[in-house]
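Office hours follow-up: a student asked to see two folded examples consecutively, so here they are.
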Amino acid sequence: MAASRLPEDLARSLLRHLRVEQPVDLELVAFATGLSIRRENPTSFEGALTRIPGQAQGVVVVRRVSRGWGRERFTIAHEIGHYLLPGHGSTVCSGDTGMMLRGRGSDEHEVAANRFAAELLLPAAEVVPLVRKQRLSVAIVKSIAQKFSASLTAAAFQCMEVTEESCAAVVSVDGIRRSYRPSRTWSYFLPVGGMLDHRSVAARLGFEDASDAAEVPAIAWTTSKSMAPAAKLFENSIYLPPYSMTLSILTAIR
């Protein structure tokens, strides 16, 4: 198998071997691979993997959460990835990788574990029929997240991996753009770290669970020189009060 596809291939092989259905039972997967799962209340990390010396066993420690079951599931799947992928040792993961599946400067082991987790929880072959031939929207991402018991962010990012649309998913926290995932046909740079532009739909949401959609000036999100000054994007955003987070789906208007 091609080394570049190892994380996804390994996840698919595991699903076939265990014959599990979606949403995948992570307790079963962990047990079958020699892992036990402990939920604790660490303050310095999201998840950790400890290997038992001399044995094909280990322990996954994950931060116990009162909300965001999907996020906890992704963390567990991520640590299982570290356990099964060649060359990965014991780990402590802070959650600051933003579930990146690709990108320059990212830690290769973290990216590989995230790619494994995404494929384990949201198999591309099952997501593709749900997103192809239609404009991606928050409603579609929410339905996929519910179907696979995944977080909204994980579902949105996996949609970007398989869609044929020119679009991107952006996560903003406390009004600051924190991370984004472009589709493979998206060609514009989206800077992170800055405040949301007042012309964006995302900037108008807040203080309650709300979503909205509209055409917005492209310069509200990107300063790419390849973008025409009058260009627009279709933006669909949702605000999630428990996390002070906004998820935005941006689609290039042709």
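And the second, which I mentioned at the end of office hours:
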Amino acid sequence: MQKVILLTVTHFNNTPEVERFLHHVTQLELPGDWRLEVVITDNSGNLDLSRKSGGIVSVCRPESNLGYLRGCSYALETWMQKHNTLPEWIFVSNTDVEFDKEIFTKLTVFPLPERVCCLAPDIILKSGLHQNPHKIYRPGRFEMYSYTLIYRSRHLTAFLDNLCNIISIVSRFIRMKNREISRPEQYKSQYFELIYAPHGSCIILHKTFLEHGGKIDYKGFMYGEEIYIGEEALKQNFKILWVPDLKVTHFKKATTGMVCQTQKVRWRLEISKILWNEFFSKR
């Protein structure tokens, strides 16, 4: 019986982007004992696919716009209800990304360590900035509470975003230099690193995440998916790995680009309160 890699994605008035994504992923190769399936949650209710996808693509339509992670959760639940089983791997992914041509092949032979339920690929922006590892360590209570204050202001939010980008560039440079010094050449392609949270534009979950009670039915509409997944893994005493050999290019053309900055800040304030109340407010 073939094992399944399931891609869960969402659509909201971005049909050309979704079609480009589908054309891309359906061209990628898989070993013969694996198959790829894609489920799209049509949040805007107007997705009309013109491309033929060989029956591996299905569309589900909720009654309302569920946002990103909750929309992917709806897609996953729809697939599982139909097939009454679990896929081996589940991608929670934006559609403004492009996978390395060997990503599925490498994933199917990845030697999954014990107690690992999630992989964070090396997500690279066109500017060259690497978005993973998103967070190596669990944030403290002070940091999480400060977000509930910072996200009340557009200006503070913009300042925080710029600061985080700078810190990410510097810390990655230091980390990669140390890796080059400490690891022999023959082991570099097999390198992975234990982290707290993956970047939300592409999260790769193993079925063990679901088997042990993990959920992606996130209350937030947009943003904060990284912390939520990190906390869900922690609740199960599972681990998340950053795997640089699994490469993804992120074009940052998702539907959030069509949303005004004020709305984005509102979403961030909403999710900061949700995450604080659900995971960090209690000692």
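Two things to take away from it. Helices lie at 15-25, 69-83, 103-108, 141-150, 154-182, 207-211, 225-235, 261-280. The longest helix spans residues 154-182.
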